[in-house]
Amino acid sequence: MNIKDIVNRDLVTLTNCEHEPIHIPGSIQPHGFLIGLDSDLKIDFCTANISLFVDLQHTDILGKNFTAIFGSKQQKQILDYINEDKIQNVFPLEINLLGKSFQVSIHKSYDIYVLEAELKFADREKLADVYTQTIQFVTQMNNTTSLKDLCALVAEGTREITGYDRVMIYKFDELYNGEVFAESCREDLEPFLGLHYPHTDIPVQARELYIKNQLRLIVDINYKPVPIFTIDDNKENKNLDLSLSILRSTSPIHVEYLKNMGVGATLTISLIHHDRLWGLIACHHYSKKNISPEIRLAAKLQGQFITSQIDIRQSNDENVSAQRASLALEELTSLELPLSDDSLETIVNTQEILNLCNASGVSVSTKDKIYKSTLAPSDDYIRTLTEQITKQIQDKTFVTNKLSDYFSEIERCPDFAGILYHSLDSHSHIIWYRPETISEINWGGDPEKAIVKDNNGLHPRNSFNIWKQIIKNQSNTWKQYEINTAIRYSHTLHNHLMLIMLSKEEEKYRTQSEVLKETNSELENINWISTHDLQEPLRKIQMITSKMLTELDVIPLESIHSSLVRVSKSAGRMRILLEDILKFTRIKNTRDVLQKVDLNQILKTTTAEMKENIKESKAVIQSENLPEVYAVSFLMRQLFSNLIQNSLKYASPDRSPVIKITASQEPELFGHLNKIYCHWVNFSDNGIGFEQQYAETIFKVFSRLHNQDEYTGSGVGLALCKKIMQTVGGNIEAVGKVGEGTEIKIYFPCDPEETLL
């Protein structure tokens, strides 16, 4: 029978240690021995050091039945332990093997039962002592509230129970960089509390083993690995998976790392939270040290105390901030806001929207505009950022505390480093911003020099002196409760935007209904004027021409001339009336063609066209600088022409007409008749004026305050002016004083592309 060892002799270096098969080293630590039994309880594996514990050689027992070597009573104990499902039990099996007492841990590795035997501890602690220590710890644990306080208590309690020189609670971040979160150590030792260690110190496969096997013990860092032997039965790659082993030999890279730290023995307990390696309880001793199974159990319980309390303690730690965020959410959702875009300006400038997630700035982007707080970036930056997020990120929510890691092509904004983004719909987004938080991290050695090269090759670093690193370009990490609260409010904001949209649609239909109602009224007036006002000049023409025809032989030439003049005037009145009706009906209620119009140029063009009328009336037109407004150019010429013509028509016979035109000089938001405007222009004259009770009547189509013979006109002029202002989204009003004059004020809408500060 051929016997061979299964020692893994592949050369391991720091360049390939992440792929080192540490679960199949083919060797163990020498403070115990190992045998492997197949399904028939035949000894298929055995370590070379069995002879140090019992009077046997590994070559004597390989291939033999367990009963033949150790006896039927011991085999029954083994089978009872296995069949009672005590594999990986918290207590090892106490058994007598060839006259010596052992504590045997048993687990199954594929089809092999792995027995790991250690001599029974002569002075091992009693269960009652462990129980008493545990009760004391639980009592103290209940007096702590924060996770950090609990970890500090666990570090102190674990050191007291185990007797190790140093006990650290090691906490991982999302990249598995570690931080010494809590520590208890001998007073003469340099503390490691607060130091950070790079993720390369614990490679991926080591972290996986920590999850599978939650307790790891190295009794003597200077141990010589003991090889495992097996029968050479020509099975290819015959090996033994020791992932769950207590005695498993450790990686030579890890051994060298610990030696560089001056460590003599270690105990490591895994802290697993939500199926992820949250951290470790790392115990260091500066000489050889072994502990009994009872002490191992008590130490393992310490780790379970931490993992069972992580969610609760983190909730306690965040409770005050979470309550503040909830209060901000409650206050925001209870705001009574108008169903208009102005409400978004109110929202982004409330402190509560920042308190939701402890942000420093916020912006809300809609299809038409960006609303933002004072500490938010520029509109162009926000547009670029949202474009990149929607292009590269599929989720509705995107959170990062280091934006530069995702969108390096966007120029860094110095005002913030982290964002919390949520898509409200395909055209609307909300983003919270956090400023850069420059922090200092103390590393246990330079993390960039985790590998040291010398004449003998590559080695783990041998310097653990504090190395300070300054972290820039990132903000504080967004907590989960902050993200949840922000998303909850985002849903509320989305509903508010939907209500605004519906309100706009309702206003649109209401306006259309009003326009339709007014149009119907106008059509009735047009119908009336076509059957009334047009008949009067037609009757005159018919009467005059009939009289001329019957008296053609006797009527003097002067009477013919006078009659023809009267006919011409009546025909002229009909022509003017028909032209005004045509102008009025051609004005459509649409704002599709609105653009910037310089009213100075409009006034200049209008007065040039009316030069003869102005000169004939001896009128003086005084004007100051007029603004650019959002309107339609040809309608503005019609508007100015009608207003000036109206002042000339109703001039006082006692004085020369003076028309003054004043205006707002800068855009400013002001309300008038429940609407918001940006500019006003005022036309005032010194004419005959009117009684204020007719201020609305004068803008109705075909309305006249004076006799037709006294003042000519169709009554359409000011009605045209009102319709023009309605068309461009503005308004018009008049103030009159009899015998003193008239003021007509027109209001212009804001350009939707402008942002007024």
From TrEMBL:
MF (Gene Ontology): phosphorelay sensor kinase activity; photoreceptor activity
Return the protein name: histidine kinase
As its record notes, the protein acts as a catalyst of: ATP + protein L-histidine = ADP + protein N-phospho-L-histidine
Database matches in InterPro entries: GAF (IPR003018), GAF-like_dom_sf (IPR029016), HATPase_C_sf (IPR036890), HATPase_dom (IPR003594), His_kinase_dom (IPR005467), HisK_dim/P_sf (IPR036097), PAS-like_dom_sf (IPR035965), PAS_2 (IPR013654)
Q: Which Gene3D superfamilies did the record assign?
A: 1.10.287.130, 3.30.450.270, 3.30.450.40, Histidine kinase-like ATPase, C-terminal domain, PAS domain
**Organism expressing this protein natively:** Flavobacterium johnsoniae (strain ATCC 17061 / DSM 2064 / JCM 8514 / BCRC 14874 / CCUG 350202 / NBRC 14942 / NCIMB 11054 / UW101)
- State which Enzyme Commission number(s) the record gives: 2.7.13.3
Q: Does the keyword Phosphoprotein apply?
A: yes
Per UniProt, residues of the Histidine kinase domain are 529-752
Q: Name one GO biological process term.
A: detection of visible light
